Amino acid sequence: MDILIYGIINSFSLALMAIGFTLVYGISRIPNFAHGALYVITGFLVWSLVHLLKLNYVVSIILALLIMGLVGAAIYRFVLIRVRGMATSEIIATYALGLAVLEFLRWGGFKGMTYTLPVFIEGSIVIGGIPVDLQRVIVIAIGIVVVTFMWLFTHFNKIGLALRGMAQDEHAAMMLGIDSDRMAVIAMAMGSMLAGIAAITLLPLGNIVVEAGYNVLILSIAVCIVGGLGSWVGAILAAFMIGFLQIITVAYIQSHFHMVVALLVIIATLILKPSGLFGRQKELEERV
Amino acid sequence: MDKNPGTAERRKERLDRGIKVRTEGIYAISSWQEVSYLVLPRLILIVGLLLLPFLMPSLYWNRVISIVGIYALLALGFDFLAHYVGLVSLGGSFFIGVGGYIAAILNKSFGLSPLFTIPIATLSGAIICTLLLLPALPLRGVYFAIVTLMYPLVLFRIIEALNILGGTDGILGVASFPNTWVEQYLILSIIILALFGLRRLVNEDIGLVFRGVKDNDQAVRASGLSITLYKAIAVFITSALGCLGGAYFVHIYMVAGISLFALDYSVIPIAATVIGGGGTLVGPLLGCFILVPISELLRAFGTLRIVFYSVILLAFIMFRSEGIMVYAQRKYHQFERWVKV
Fold first, then answer.
1. What percent of chain A has pLDDT over 70?
2. Where are the domains of chain A?
């Protein structure tokens, strides 16, 4: 029973982390290695708004999300647009950006136990005989809301449909009058906001630490590869698979192997079915 | 451009110098001028490298030269892999870590001297790295970058969590080199060999196949060659260079710890390659000789150094992605003039 409940919670947290990465990759084919950095920045942003500017918690969350959206758009508009299409440069640019941010925060002294965000609602409820604190229930709720919203957005909204068009065939989309760069800016802004939402939902469960940036990056990459890079349905299913595998490993083997699971799952996927569970990538394109 | 009035009717034309064309064939030996045009840049590099230990005799700078050498090996490997085979490796520290730990274990547990541990660590480390990276090789795209990014981060955590291989303290008391002269000339001669060896390699038939893998893998496949095999050979070469650097590092610092998986080893080679000029193989070397001494001077700033590199790297890749060496080679081989359109 614990495995079921904590597995579901863990799966939703993974889905939240990964959805932003997979959105950006699916649409602009840019592997955003700065995803983890965006996640951590949001945490520090909310923390500083609450503690330094003494703003209301809700107000600062909304403000932080808006800022993250702008940051994401700015990253695409000023950095990535210049290296678009050059695969090597794209990888190096986002990697350098992510490292610069994370190591700057580390240097700035953001480490240790002092930086925490308050939980949304205190208290816990008992599900099937196991006490679960409310923040973890909220993780599930927000996970469901975000996933449903993304589904609705990409199926019933003009911008969402344009994004999906871009993801399927960029040239055809451009012929139909969809501005490729504008869509990529929107995708990057939404990707950063999704990283921000994940951060705001998950960080109250622990401390804000710089290492989280690397962990989140690894986990979201693992989820995306297992689900098939760029496939949203696959990413969510993969989140469940990895989420339960992790919880089972922690319960029956050892909690240290938590991260190793992610690596092993990636390697296994690459060997067995490189396009992932729901590879929209078309196997022919990826496998040489 | 704005300083030249009427740029609309004029454009810059670039032409190869006559001497460059003359030195391409057998006529290179027709006069001393042509011979020196070819030999001089190479001679300056080799003699410069070999004189370095004399020019910088203090113990501190000797150590810096050795460190530059390790980074230069990684950067050479990165440049070779990224610009000749099309695989972007974000995990230089993975190679350093594997090579370093193997050398340390061989030295401490089996009592082998550096004379044996370094070659064994290089070869076995390269085999291990190639095998571990093998799953990502049959695939195109970002998979190789992702997998190389993950290995050092995960290995770091495994060693830390399981407390194996000396845990966070590392393996202490590894044997050192007899003296600093051996230490420095070893790495300098290895760099020179690696540089000229790789340059020869990429101009051989196999180099053509490597570039084929990068630019048009289907053509390579249509010629009946296995892409995975050639990628594996390239990864083997790169990881051998990295593992050699790692083994050497362990012997000069006499310790192998989880700091072998530090991010510096992944970022600096990339930054050095981008600054020095990707695809030239000499460029990364130059980049290391610029960046690493600066890094030593900035040691007091801790992780801010990584920020510094990342920002330089970002700036170069956005605005000056050709790098120093490509620019210098262009100036050396070509002249420019304005022509009317």
1. 88
2. 2-121+133-286
